Amino acid sequence: MQNLVFHKKGFLFLFVLGTFVLLNGCEKELAPVRLLRFEQDLFDTKTVSQPDHFYKLQKKYGYYYDSYCKDVLNISEEESAEAFQPSMSKFVSIPSILQLKHEVDSVFPNTTQIEQELSEAMAIYIKEFPDKKVPTFITYLSEFTIANTTYDSIIGIGLDFYLGSNYPLYPALEFPEFMVAKLRREYLIANTIKAMAIGRYEQQLKDKRFLAMMLFEGKVRYFMKQLLPTTPDSLIFGYSAKQVQWAKENEAMIWAHLVENKLLFNADPSTYMRYFNDGPFTIASGVPQESSPAIGIYAGYKIIENYMKENSSVSLKELMGNGNWDELLKESKYKPK
């Protein structure tokens, strides 16, 4: 779901840092994450009918509340002085939205496991980026519009994108089959960390060359794998097991195809985005239908992986801050066989 991330700058929120806890009989370092359940507060039956309900939400969530109203629900900014109350009052009383909230609650009756997994990832994050703060994670309902929202120190998680591949509304909304297969709880953590990386570093994409896009996406996947060391490649890349295997077996062919078609220094995104878009396979001339989708991303990851092997003294923080794409390619010494 590469195109379902919304990013906006300028919001500071509270965060929590942690030390060590005993988990499943093993001592694991954690940075405790406690999800803020915005959708629970929004639809709270005890307060939703009170005149000041939305004003209190606006006070509690600050800029996030305003952004949710404007950027997720597309409510006019003219209502901001009233805490968007007219439109929000209608939104929380729509039967289909109330049904969606019920269905989300049934899939996510609690978020204990999500918090645990995010805590483990954030423990690695603060080790690798000691000058950074753990973001605040907020869950919400987007009515199937935006899977993740990212801000300077907030990561939003749209729970309605993780109701399971058998959820009947996904096909009804004409989500393609390859996408529906990934709208599962198993993808939630990987997609959240991916959104975090994109939000932190997307300003590096001023360079419009294929090379820049390929290595940027490769760095994002490398970041994900470092923070989620036990997560399978299928969730990192959004591949089936068969597609993971195809990519591994055809790594040299993928690279040869990109070079022979002179894609690396192509600066016209309209001609090369098919190598980065999700799909049932990579829909590009000369690429077989049994291919994995978005092979440009996979190639970028393999180059970055090789770069880090060749430059073992480079930290994850240094890698992520390096936007010199030509240097990264050259120093990776990437030559798949």
Structure write-up:
The chain is an alpha/beta fold. The protein has two domains: 196 residues, no CATH class; 128 residues, no CATH class. 47% of the residues lie in helices and 8% in strands. A five-stranded mixed beta sheet has the order 1-6-7-5-4. A two-stranded antiparallel ribbon has the order 2-3. Helix 10 crosses helix 17, helix 13 crosses helix 15 and helix 15 crosses helix 17.
Radius of gyration: 21 Å
Q: Looking across the biggest beta sheet, what order are the strands in?
A: 1-6-7-5-4
- The amount of beta strand, in percent, is 5-15%
The helix-strand sequence is EEEEHHHHHHEEEHHHHHHHHHHH
**Number of distinct beta strands:** 7
Helix residue percentage:
40-55%
Distance between the termini: 30 Å
| Major beta-sheet overview | 5 strands, mixed
Count helical runs: 17
Mean pLDDT reading: 92
Helix-strand makeup class? alpha/beta
Number of spatially distinct domains: 2
General shape: globular
Low-pLDDT windows of residues: 9-26
Which properties best describe this structure?
single chain, 337 residues, alpha/beta, 2 domains, 5-stranded mixed β-sheet, two-stranded antiparallel sheet, 8% strand
Fold topology:
Blueprint: E1 5-7, E2 20-23, E3 26-29, E4 36-37, H1 38-42, H2 53-61, H3 63-72, H4 85-91, H5 95-107, H6 112-128, E5 136-140, E6 148-150, E7 154-158, H7 169-172, H8 177-180, H9 188-201, H10 210-227, H11 233-237, H12 241-249, H13 251-260, H14 269-272, H15 295-310, H16 316-321, H17 325-332
Parallel strand pairs: 1-6, 4-5, 5-7
Antiparallel strand pairs: 2-3, 6-7
Helix pairs in contact: 2-3, 9-10, 10-15, 10-17, 13-15, 15-17
